[in-house]
Amino acid sequence: MDKAKIGVIGAGWWATEFHIPNLKKRDDVELVSVCKLEQDQLDFVKNKFDFKFSSTDFNEMLNFSPLDGVIIASPHFAHFDNAKASLEKGCHVLIEKPMTTNSSDAEKL
């Protein structure tokens, strides 16, 4: 069985303490790409968890390599744009709460 290729948008405390370590433990998951705005923190996360690619731009991250799924752990105001772009690439998404900042955007997704 092929490994699920996963990207992570937003790599703050919750993502680096829970989402990413739990995914890293799985034999059926490949951590492909990660996005975070702060370059020094991004470099640390990329190296610590052995991501193949990192970027401060989520669109660049999504275009690096085909992904099966994306964890969206960015600030809540960015969830809609991050999820919309990920879904348009054909990815499954897990979005931290709140899903979006309003019900209209949630319905659009």
From TrEMBL:
Residues 5-109 form the Gfo/Idh/MocA-like oxidoreductase N-terminal domain. Signal peptide: none annotated. InterPro entries: Gfo/Idh/MocA-like_OxRdtase_N (IPR000683), Gfo/Idh/MocA_Oxidoreductases (IPR051450), NAD(P)-bd_dom_sf (IPR036291). Transmembrane segments: none annotated. One of its GO terms (molecular function) is nucleotide binding. This is Gfo/Idh/MocA-like oxidoreductase N-terminal domain-containing protein.
